[in-house]
C-alpha cells in the first residue's frame, strides 16, 4: 500500500522548508541553479508568480530585476516534487535582495536608462533613410562602415558590460544570464548625419543592444518629419502622415505605393501636406492653416 502525504502535512512541510530557507545563513546565491529575470514595475506578488513559473531541478535562487524601479528581488524557489509525489508547481519566497546587491543593480538600471536616452550620429554616403528602411543588409553595412565612430559614441555600453559582470560575480550568476535580462531593454536612436531631406528633425532608425552588440532595426526607421516608414516586413502605417518637406513627401509616396497602397496626390504642392490612409487607399491634402481658421 502506498502511503501519501496529507494535504495539511504537505503544506506544513512546504512552509517549514520556505521558512528555513529564509532564516538559514547563506551567500547571496547558494542554490543549485541561479538565474536572473527582469520586469518593470512589478509587485512582490507578480515577482513571486514569475519565479514560480520557472523550471528548477531541486531548488534555485532566482533574481528578478525591476528596471523601472531599480529594485532587485531574490526568490528562493523550491520544486514541489521534492516535497511530495504529486506536485507539479514550484513554491517561491521573494524579498528584496541584500543591500549590496541592490546597489549594484540600481547602478545597472541607471546605465540602461541613460543608454535609452542616448543617440549616435553616423553617415550613409550616397543614400537616405528610405534606402535603409526595410533593408537589413543596408542597415548592417551602415553600422559596420561606421563601427569605430559608433563605438566611440557609446562608451556607456562598456560601462554596462562591466557592471553586469560585477552583478554576475556578486550573485553567483553567469555573465550571459545578466545579459539576457538586459537584452531588448536598450534602444538607441541612430541618426542619419547626412540627412538631406530638410525636415523638422533628423531621420533615424532604432538600434537595439543584444548579446552580439548594437544592431539596427531596419523596420523602425523614421523620416525627418517624424513619420514611421512602412516596409514589406512591417507594412502597417499610421492613419495619417504630415510632411513639411517635399523630399520626405515624395519618398513616402513612392514607399506607400511600393507596399501596395494607392496614393492620390492630385495637385497638392503646398507644404505642409497631410496624407490620410484608410486600408490600402491614401489621399494627399494640404494641411489647413489653424491660424486662418481661427480668423473665420
Low-confidence stretches: 1-31, 291-296
Radius of gyration: 27 Å
Strand order of the largest sheet: 1-2-3-4
Helix content: 25-40%
What structural category do the secondary elements indicate? Answer: alpha/beta
Number of helices: 10
Question: What general form does the structure show?
Answer: elongated
For the sheet with most strands, the description reads: 4 strands, mixed
- The total domain count is 3
What is the helix/strand order?
HEHEEEHEHHHHHEEEEHEEEH
β-strand percent reads 25-35%
* Secondary structure tally: strands: 12
How far apart are the first and last residues' alpha carbons, in Å?
93 Å
Average predicted local confidence, pLDDT: 82
Produce a short descriptive summary:
The protein is an alpha/beta fold.
Entry keywords:
296 residues; 3 domains; 4-stranded mixed sheet; 26% strand; elongated; disordered C terminus
Amino acid at each position: 500500500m502506498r502511503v501519501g502525504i496529507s494535504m495539511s502535512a504537505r503544506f506544513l512541510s512546504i512552509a517549514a522548508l520556505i521558512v528555513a530557507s529564509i532564516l538559514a545563513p547563506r551567500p547571496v546565491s547558494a542554490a543549485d541553479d541561479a538565474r536572473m529575470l527582469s520586469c518593470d514595475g512589478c509587485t512582490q506578488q507578480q515577482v513571486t508568480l514569475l519565479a514560480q513559473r520557472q523550471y528548477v531541478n531541486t531548488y534555485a535562487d532566482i533574481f528578478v530585476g525591476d528596471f523601472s524601479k531599480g529594485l532587485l528581488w531574490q526568490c528562493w524557489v523550491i520544486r514541489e516534487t521534492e516535497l511530495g509525489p504529486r506536485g507539479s508547481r514550484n513554491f517561491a519566497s521573494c524579498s528584496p535582495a541584500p543591500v549590496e546587491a541592490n546597489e549594484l543593480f540600481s547602478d545597472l538600471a541607471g546605465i540602461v536608462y541613460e543608454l535609452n536616452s542616448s543617440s549616435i550620429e553616423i553617415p550613409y554616403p550616397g543614400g537616405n533613410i528610405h534606402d535603409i528602411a526595410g533593408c537589413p543588409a543596408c542597415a548592417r553595412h551602415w553600422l559596420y562602415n561606421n563601427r569605430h565612430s559608433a563605438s566611440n559614441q557609446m562608451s556607456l555600453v562598456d560601462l554596462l558590460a562591466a557592471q553586469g559582470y560585477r552583478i554576475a560575480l556578486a550573485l553567483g550568476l553567469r555573465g550571459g544570464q545578466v545579459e539576457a535580462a538586459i537584452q531588448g531593454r536598450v534602444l538607441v536612436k541612430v541618426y542619419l548625419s547626412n540627412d538631406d531631406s530638410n525636415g523638422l528633425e533628423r531621420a533615424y532608425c532604432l538600434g537595439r543592444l543584444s548579446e552580439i552588440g548594437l544592431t539596427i532595426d531596419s523596420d523602425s526607421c523614421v523620416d525627418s518629419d517624424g513619420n514611421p516608414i512602412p516596409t514589406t516586413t512591417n507594412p502597417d502605417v499610421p492613419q495619417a502622415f504630415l510632411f513639411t518637406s517635399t523630399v520626405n513627401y515624395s519618398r513616402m509616396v513612392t514607399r506607400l505605393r511600393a507596399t501596395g497602397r494607392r496614393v492620390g496626390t492630385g495637385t497638392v504642392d503646398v507644404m505642409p501636406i497631410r496624407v490620410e490612409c484608410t486600408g490600402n487607399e491614401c489621399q494627399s491634402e494640404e494641411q489647413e492653416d489653424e491660424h486662418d481658421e481661427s480668423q473665420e
